[in-house]
Design brief:
With 110 residues, the chain is an all-alpha fold. It is built from 3 helices and no strands.
């Protein structure tokens, strides 16, 4: 016979799932969890890729700056340039070996 009891639909669905559909329920939860993990992993991968690209650009800029500094150091430290500046601006000249005086400091005195 048909009973006149009223049952709520969510209660009937939950009861049926617990009695007869444990494996599909477990699989559905597993699919949901794995899909969330895939989305999270993809997001983190994109963030790390963007960060890596930023660091590569920064490394390239620093490399270019380093090369420019080396070129500048070589240009400023060139012997002919230093000698020319010493001669023109400071009126320095080479010392004649006959006019050289060598001072020797005894050991232990400072």
């Amino acid at each position: 016979m048909i009973s006149n009891d009223r049952h709520s639909l969510p209660g009937v669905i939950a009861g049926d799932l617990l009695r007869h559909g444990k494996i599909p329920l477990i699989l559905a939860v597993a699919v949901l969890v794995s899909s969330i993990l895939v989305v999270t992993t993809a997001h983190k991968t994109r963030l790390l890729t963007a960060q890596r690209e930023q660091l590569v650009l920064e490394r390239d800029a620093l490399d270019i700056e380093w090369r420019n500094l080396i070129l500048e150091e070589n240009a400023l430290g060139d012997h002919s340039r230093v000698e020319k500046m010493a001669t023109e601006k400071l009126q320095m000249q080479h010392v004649d070996p006959s006019q050289e005086n060598i001072v020797v400091q005894p050991l232990g005195t400072e």
